[in-house]
Design a protein that fits this description.
The chain has two domains: 126 residues, Diaminopimelate Epimerase, Chain A, domain 1; 124 residues, Diaminopimelate Epimerase, Chain A, domain 1, CATH 3.10.310. 20% of the residues lie in helices and 40% in strands. It has six helices and 18 strands. A hairpin with a 2-residue loop joins strand 7 and strand 8. The model has no long low-confidence stretch (mean pLDDT 96).
Length: 264
């Protein structure tokens, strides 16, 4: 099988979010997928069955510890490789079959555009254990079965958070988006994402988090097209556009670091 290392949501190597992309000639057991993902140590590795003459393309994502139901940067990376290495033509629309339904990818100018679901959260009380573990004072806290979503007062506070990851691991459901209004005129909002419970202490750039961030900041700012910046050490840009069918388009660039072969 072919293995590619891709930096996603960036146009510069060694920034954005690195992902593995495995192009499979035939499917392999999930145990092997997990071993490969653990060996690579990326936040996610995408496994893609080599496209045939027609039809949708199966896609799955694994962290070093578990399979996840949705991943933005590894989907962008997979689409980037399928286009770049001519598995599909650049004027085609890719249809991935995933555990989150059909996800599409196509070129929009110089960026790859993903069609993802908008995701929702519900109001909840602030969690004092979470606030203590993050060292933050929230303006607003919501959650669902997957994660906590918290807005804080300033970009400076967001950038300087130093979470206690051992404490965060004990707080269910185990994944956390923290966001703030941008202090940079190039961006509409800033964010960080933490997932120690699934083996990702801090994710550099989280496409799926923008399925929550885009509708939240759209309602606050009164605009349907927004640009987010994830203020991790590597950093990355995600352009978001809400559509009228509860979907969100995520646009970004990607660059290939290397490719090799895996023999199992």
């Amino acid at each position: 099988m072919k293995l590619y290392h891709v930096d996603a949501f960036t146009d510069k190597l060694f920034t954005g979010n690195p992902a593995g992309v495995c192009i499979l000639d035939k499917d392999i057991p999930d145990e092997q997928k997990l071993h490969i993902a653990a060996e690579l140590k990326h936040s996610e590795t995408a496994f893609v069955l080599r496209p045939g003459n027609a039809g949708d393309i199966p896609l799955r994502w694994f962290t070093p510890e578990t399979e996840v139901p949705l991943c933005g940067h590894a989907t962008l990376s997979a689409a980037h490789i399928l286009f770049e290495k001519k598995y599909v033509r650049k004027d085609e629309t890719i249809r991935f079959t995933t555990k989150s339904g059909i996800l599409t990818a196509k070129y929009s100018g110089t960026q790859v555009e993903l069609d993802f679901p908008q995701l929702s959260v519900r109001p909840c009380a602030a969690n004092p254990d979470l606030n203590a573990a993050m060292g933050m004072t929230p303006l607003f806290t919501v959650k669902n079965e997957e994660l906590y979503f918290v807005e804080i007062a300033s970009a400076k506070e967001l950038r300087t958070l130093q979470p206690d990851f051992n404490a965060l691991k004990k707080i269910l459901p185990g994944e956390f988006i923290v966001t703030a209004a941008s202090d940079d005129p190039r961006f509409d909002f800033l964010s960080r994402f933490f997932g120690p419970a699934v083996g990702i202490p801090e994710d550099p750039v989280t496409g799926s988090a923008h399925c929550y961030l885009a509708p939240y900041w759209s309602a606050k700012l009164g605009k349907n097209t927004l640009t987010g910046f994830q203020v991790s050490a590597r950093g990355g840009v995600v352009e978001c556009e809400l559509t009228g069918n509860k979907r969100v388009k995520l646009r970004g660039r990607a660059v290939t670091f290397f490719e090799t072969d895996i023999v199992l």
